[in-house]
Design brief:
The protein is of the alpha/beta class and 496 residues long. The protein is built from 18 helices and eleven strands. Helix 10 links the parallel strand 2 and strand 3.
């Protein structure tokens, strides 16, 4: 018997079902993706080869912001769509070039980029377990491994976030919940709270404290020693000064290392102070926490096992693409209790640990499948890869520092402890004010020429050139070439 429906809704559904959206079919064509993917991989492989082997002299083809914007406006209107990816390569900084010695992002392993491609295509948001089964399970495996390498017990737990800034904020939120008697998350704060940090700590700590409502007074910046590590002899004084101002200090942050100078704080001394005062000890190891994998340099993070929380970036010293960061808690309960709120469509109460529903545990709801990069590199190459990378880069930092300290026309900010090296061109009898301008001009000329890429910083009001050796294919010879170029430019500017 044939049943005929007179329901108009059925007719509408059938009409919609039989529509043929040609543009969408083109966009989602597997064959088109296959073709474009092969072409793009070939292009990127050639770019990788040209960068690593310096077949292209340029690290960056500098362009003024307005000119760059106008280029892309014109390209959007008139450019050939086939030229999009080649033009992107021309207009971006080549981090795989051995003369890229600039910001703290690594030359990522190609396999890590492939993991990123998989994450982008599959697009599992990972808020709840069923929207990211594999990456959620892998995230647990990786954070457990990191906890073990840090020296934490099996009670430790971790999460991954989009960057060190967000991870540090999350850690400080956990610290406040753990150490402050008031329920600030639900009831707000009626008292003044504070966090102690090094004067050389990364600016994201200052930013996190302000987001939390601590204000300027609640960011207690402890001066540093001559080597730019936090002066632990002043901790008691600054703690008592805060108390006298009615500020309850609930956490202290150690730098591993400081972003500006590359110097590690004395984590053992800091942990002892925190234990004595019963305050939270957080280690910002976004850059150098990866030293836990280096047999040669793991002494730099001595005392990290006493921290309450630790941040480590995968996209800095661990060969991963931006942006992926691990936040590890010594006591795993704090990885679950920081964010307490209801979203009935998404989150349900559970008596079990519920480690796999990540929206309960992170600031983010949707996030990328960032754990894939960590797992893939470990599966293919093991921990030895991270050991070799950290050790190679830190060795280059020591070698670079040794070259600089021997030259009377160059001045180190401090003896390097990592792959971050700050120095400047100097000339006897020339004032610091003039030398600051000369070093700024040197950096500007290097940027415009594009054969090297370095950055700059101010330390105690003095302008320094700042290098971070992020590429294991950078050589001492290339570093020597950079110094020769800087000296030549400095002398020319003085005599001009």
């Amino acid at each position: 018997m044939k049943i005929i429906s007179n329901n108009p809704l059925n007719n509408t559904v059938n009409t919609i079902h039989h529509m043929t959206p040609e543009l969408l079919k083109e966009v989602y064509s597997p064959e088109r993706f296959r073709q474009q993917g092969h072409e793009l991989i070939d292009l990127l492989a050639n770019h990788l080869d040209a960068s690593l082997h310096q077949k292209n002299d340029q690290v960056i083809q500098w362009n003024l912001p307005d000119n760059e914007k106008n280029f892309w406006i014109e390209f959007q209107e008139k450019g050939d769509k086939k030229d999009f990816f080649p033009e992107i390569l021309k207009h971006t900084t080549h981090v795989h070039h051995p003369k890229y010695i600039g910001h703290q992002v690594c030359a990522p392993a190609p396999q890590a980029a492939l993991a990123g491609l998989v994450s982008s295509l599959l697009n599992n948001g990972m808020a709840v377990y069923e929207m990211g089964m594999a990456p959620s399970a892998i995230e647990r495996i990786i954070t457990d491994l990191l906890a073990k390498k840090i020296g934490f017990s099996e009670e430790a737990r971790g999460i991954m976030t989009s960057g060190g800034t967000l991870a540090n904020l999350t850690a400080l939120l956990a610290a406040r919940k753990a150490k402050v008697a008031e329920d600030v998350w639900n009831e707000g704060s009626s008292k003044k709270l504070g966090v102690m940090v090094s004067a050389e700590a990364h600016y994201c700590i200052d930013r996190a404290a302000r987001i939390m409502g601590l204000g300027t007074a609640g960011i207690i910046k402890v001066p540093v020693n001559s080597d730019f590590s936090i002066d632990t002899s002043l901790l008691e004084k600054y703690y008592k000064d805060a108390q006298n101002q009615g500020i309850e200090v609930f956490a202290l942050v150690g730098s591993a290392p400081s972003t500006a100078s590359g110097i590690y704080d004395d984590l053992t001394a800091l942990s002892s102070f925190c234990s004595e005062k019963d305050i939270w000890f957080h280690v910002d190891g976004a850059h150098g926490g990866a030293a836990i994998f280096s047999e040669k340099y793991k002494h730099t993070v001595k005392g990290i096992d006493k921290a309450d929380s630790v941040v480590i970036d995968g996209h800095k010293m661990m060969l991963m693409s931006t942006i992926t960061t691990a936040l590890i808690f010594r006591e795993g309960q704090y990885s679950h209790t920081t964010f307490s709120q209801h979203a009935d469509y998404l989150l349900q109460d559970s008596e079990e640990e519920d480690w796999y529903n990540l929206a309960k545990r992170t600031f983010e709801c949707t996030k990328t499948m960032m754990s894939l990069q960590w797992f893939l590199l470990l599966k293919f190459y093991g921990e030895a890869l991270f050991d070799q990378n950290v050790t190679t880069l830190y060795d280059l930092g020591q070698a670079f520092g040794a070259l600089i300290v021997k030259d009377p026309k160059l001045q180190l900010a401090t003896t390097p402890m990592s792959n971050i090296v700050c120095f400047r061109f100097v000339e006897a009898g020339v004032s610091n004010e003039i030398l600051d301008k000369i070093n700024q001009k040197i950096r500007a000329e290097l940027l415009e020429e594009g054969t090297f890429y370095i950055v700059q910083t101010k330390i105690r009001g003095v302008h320094f050139l700042r290098t971070t050796i992020m590429n294991p294919f950078t050589t001492p010879a290339a570093l020597g070439e950079l110094l020769t170029l800087i000296k030549h430019k400095g002398v020319a500017l003085i005599t001009a």
